[in-house]
Write a structure and sequence with these properties.
Belongs to the YciI family. It comes from Nocardiopsis codii. This is YciI family protein. Helices cover 29% and strands 34% of the residues. The radius of gyration is 16 Å and the shape is globular.
Length: 107
Amino acid sequence: MRYLMTTRPTENAPDENLHTEMARFVEELTASGVLLATGGLEPGGLRVTSAGDEITVTDGPFTEAREAVAGFALVEVRSREEALEVARRFRRIVGDGESVVQQVFGP
């Protein structure tokens, strides 16, 4: 089962310990085959909409900064509970904030 985990930005300034712990966490998940991809996201982005034959592109940002998605991780695990445990471990490392975990369907 694959899950997409997204996290919202916080005002917490990262310290060196955070970078060390996160690097160790990412290395562990990568080595075990759980972590498929991870990355940070630009705050703006582009919105592409369609109506009939018309395609419209609009520059972002589209949400308030606190509601934007700051980063993501795509993981492959055996169960929802295992995905939640990965998310719990992530939150323990980064501290206060919010993450969303969603199952990815399809091949």
